Amino acid sequence: VGGLFLLQTQLIKPRKPKDFYSFEARDAKGRTVSLEKYRGKASLVVNVASHCQHTEANYKSLQELHRELGTSHFNVLAFPCGQFGDTELGLSRDIEAFAKSTYGVTFPFFSKIRILGSEADPAFRFLTDSVQKIPKWNFWKFLVNPEGKVIRFWKTDEPMASIRQEVTALVREIIIKKRGEL
């Protein structure tokens, strides 16, 4: 009887995702994307907004980082969020188009999500649960390692120079590890 109860609880109990890359998200066009496609790379996951005092500086520095480190070992993953003031009012595809045309960004954009409260996107909730911190504004950044674990986060106003240094170090580790596997 005890074994049957254990089996039953295992079948009923929802499986907790083991890492960030085990989630799915919708891209800016509404298509389902498995985040598994980013496994093996470093990812800087950011809650972005188009109309915020931090937009220009962040989009420019994130694009520069994305361009410098390339997509073989690294990606910036942008998740628009409109929960902080009226900083993100548009539709997902319009948000992506604005960022591309205004700031020349080439990194992946996902659908506009909620990151706070009971309706928070599950992938983003995984990030905040991992660091036990809830974003207070736009442009919080979460560094996810190739295995999908959150290894660091930064608040909105943290200098991009320190973020760049840590992201570059992680990408360097990934490259060295891959060379060692050859």
UniProtKB/TrEMBL annotation:
GO cellular component term of the entry, any: endoplasmic reticulum lumen
Swiss-Prot/TrEMBL keywords: Membrane, Oxidoreductase, Peroxidase, Transmembrane, Transmembrane helix
GO BP, one annotated term: cellular response to stress
Keyword Electron transport attached: no
Subcellular location: Membrane
GO terms assigned for molecular function: glutathione peroxidase activity
Active site per database record: C52
A matching Pfam family: GSHPx
Membrane topology of the entry: Single-pass membrane protein
Reactions that this protein is recorded to catalyse: 2 glutathione + H2O2 = glutathione disulfide + 2 H2O
Record carries keyword ATP-binding: no
PANTHER family documented for this protein: GLUTATHIONE PEROXIDASE, GLUTATHIONE PEROXIDASE 8-RELATED
Family (UniProt): Belongs to the glutathione peroxidase family.
Protein name: Glutathione peroxidase
Gene name of this polypeptide: GPX8
